[in-house]
Amino acid sequence: MKYAKNIMETIGNTPLVKLNKVTTDIDALVLAKVETFNPGNSVKDRMALKMIEDAEADGRLKPGGTIIEGTSGNTGMGLALAAIVKGYQLVCVINDKQSKEKMDILRAMGAEVVVTPTNVSADDPRSYYSVARKL
Q1: Is 44 a catalytic site residue?
Q2: How far apart are the C-alpha atoms of 119 and 123, rounded to whole Å?
Q3: Which residue of 52, 69, 88, 135 shows the fewest CB atoms closer than 10 Å?
Q4: Does residue 72 carry a pLDDT above 90?
Q5: 28 domain residue, yes or no
Q6: Residue 5 confidence (pLDDT)
Q7: Number of structural domains, the chain?
Q8: How far apart, in whole angstroms, are the C-alpha atoms of residue 89 and residue 66?
Q9: pLDDT above 70 covers what percent of the chain?
Q10: SS3 letters for 47-113?
């Protein structure tokens, strides 16, 4: 029986599906990669895992370390999945425009969620960019 050792092994192993109707006039095989089949339902899962692997490889992220990300949600979801499996703490800095459900999911996945105001400029110390850098 084939199975994944952990959820991280499923990232990027999403199916290719033949497009039939939209390609009837095209003399070629056209496939779509179904990235919503990633565990976090997003192509951002792949990017989040790569960010962590790169930070581990160059020594910026040590075992048991903390990841801090300014996110609008999908990258945070991917980071949360990887953080759980790899044993990292995750702090997601998110603006107050994001849905309560998105924040609740991040929290349920073990992330600390820091909410910042939307109605400030990017260089304001209260912006999610500034808060993430400060943390």
Answers
A1: yes
A2: 12
A3: 135
A4: no
A5: no
A6: 92
A7: 1
A8: 5
A9: 100
A10: HHHHHHHHHHHCCCCCCCCEEEEECCCHHHHHHHHHHHHHCCEEEEEEECCCCHHHHHHHHHCCCEE
**99 touches 76 (CB < 8 A):** no
With bands split at pLDDT 50, 70 and 90, how would you rate the model's confidence at 42?
confident
- Mention every residue, 6+ apart, whose C-beta is less than 8 A from residue 64: 87, 88, 89
Task: Please report whether residue 23 resides in a domain.
Answer: no
Cα–Cα distance, 129 to 75 (Å, whole number): 15
**Separation CA 37–CA 42 (nearest Å):** 8
**CA angle, residues 33, 68, 82, in degrees to nearest 5:** 40
pTM, two decimal places: 0.84
Please report whether residue 22 resides in a domain: no
Residue 75 is part of a domain; what is its CATH number? 3.40.50.1100
User: Tokens 């304001």, residue?
Assistant: 124
The residue segments making up the domain with residue 51 are 39-134
Among the ranges given (4-8, 18-22, 57-61, 110-114), the one the predictor scored with the smallest mean pLDDT: 4-8
Q: What is the H or E stretch that residue 133 is in?
A: helix 128-134
In a domain, 1, yes or no: no
